[in-house]
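#lab-general

N.A. 3:47 PM
ok so I finally got the sequence cleaned up, no stray characters, all 652 residues accounted for. can someone with queue access submit it? mine expired

B.Y. 3:52 PM
send it over

N.A. 3:53 PM
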Amino acid sequence: MKNLIERRFVKPGEGQTIAQIFIKPMVLLFIFMGATNCIAQTLTVKPQKPVPGDTLYITYDPKGGKFEKDTLKTATAIVFEGLMQDNKKINLSKQGEVYVGKLVTDSTTQLVAFAFSSKKVWDTAPTYGHFYPFYKDGKTVEGAQYLMADFYINATGKTLYGFNEDYQKALQLVQEERSQYPAAKNSIMVVQKYYQLLLKLSPEKAKTEILGIIAAIDQQKKITDMDYLKQFRLYEVLGMTEQAGKTIEQLAITYPSSPVIFSKRYKDALTPQSAGQMEALAIKLINDYDMLHSKDFNSLLSSVYSAVNQAYLKEFNLPKFYFYVQKQSANVKLNNLFTAAQFLADSQKELDAAEKISKWGLALLDTTASQTTNEKELNRLKEKKIEFNGALGQIFYRQQRFDEAFMLLKNVLEENEGKLAQVNLYYALLLARQKDYELAKNLLETIIKKGETTTEVMDAYKVAYQNSSANKEDYEINLSKLLAEVAKNRTAALTKMMLNEPAPNFTLVDQKGKKVSLAAYKGKIVVLDFWATWCIPCLQAFPGMQKLVSKYEKDTNVVFLFINTAETFTKDLSKRITAYLKKNSYNFHVLLDEIGTTNGKKYVVQTQYGASAIPLKVVIDQKGTIRFKTVGYLGSDELVVKELSELITMLK
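B.Y. 4:20 PM
back already:
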């Protein structure tokens, strides 16, 4: 019964590049110069030198290619507008032996490409790799050559267009951009790109020029927010992270309401920490940027309120949750109400409030549905209503209102055709209580096979099995077969989730003042638990973690290290942690993460391990390789022990 807003496994390959995300499957595109209006005699585009806002007319002849015998319905246009990339679908119609279509561009279009596919196979032109820029006043539009340069040095260019890295070509294009558009010399993006390329080709020249620009800005009578940003970007080019961090801090102090740093402050406000701290950052952000009225920032207001009300929810501060959820639009409010209802139901806490929230959401759904005739929207609201009723049924079960829970979940199951796992689970438990043992046994077996093996589920299955038509004497044999299948499936799933990353070494001081190094535990399985004193899910997981520590207490080959990190109030931290551990009888070896001096004042080990969301568990094998990462709290001590025990067993 997983906590829906807290849990996820970190999968191999997460953090993909734009190219990796974009190419599904690998796409080799027809991209072509304005002077060339035909590629491999299959594609014709008019006009030859389009102006932004023109309509492009395409003619595609599949003869002799992969799709000669296929029927094509659409093509894909990859359009670059305002330095951003977007995919657009083009409807194709067949005229004789060829396909025709059109693409309407707008005033910001800079570059375009086309791709044709059928049955997940993409047509690849033998002469792919040429760009098709847009023109204005006889020259390529501003930004087009800058975009072209990028493709000569990144993975997208190599994968899509077959380019090998060519920094000289890329630099030439950026220089042409700067020459055609002198103002581009002062554009931060162009300046940054130019010196990134120059640094590869002439490192000393690049470094001298960059430091000269930074020094010249320092000599100005007035340094603007854009000047600080330019310095920050140039320090980044040189890899001078400490100076870059100080520059952005100075920018924030001097221009706290600058649009330049809005994204940083927005990210800071949404970064998980104590709800009170998040609220303070959010209020200042909203006031500084007048988010209630600003056209530029108002659209992000709901996400700020959501972050704050979810933080208060995790701390079970329901008055504050209600206060902020009231500030949201109907659709955002619905999402937050459902999340809250499900979270409280899973936590088995504040069940009366969970019932109130569920009924609030259901009433809001009815009101919203009465105000629209859009069929698609009505279907969406219907699905959401099913989810709310599923959560409410779970709440009734936990309140021991079993008859109400049974009737509600039975209706949900019929409407949803068994698509909601939580509904199936609680309906099966209720069937066992209703003494419908045959149906309960069959449904519980299906649920167990999917890995749901909590004590509550297994006890219900035993009762259902022994009171069904099945032979009671076969219960243990049948159970063993069932659990063997579960273990096999779980092992296969965990194998797919297994990572293969070297674990960064670190040396930290523990709460007793002793230095502890990860390297000292080579040859052992090490479980790192990243946590903070303000992190409620971290603390909720601690009773389960204590049971796990006790379970492996005599196993000298398994080590648990609890890394305290991301603290915003550090006064007497070690003493406060020691007191907390003693009060709760936790036998944890706690290490205190350090704030770096060269990484923008970020916590060192948290940064090394990418622990942006906590609690984060990292399981390291005997060779010092990260094998698993899990984020969040599962919802019960039993599930915490079960999951990490499985991961440890996999590595033994």
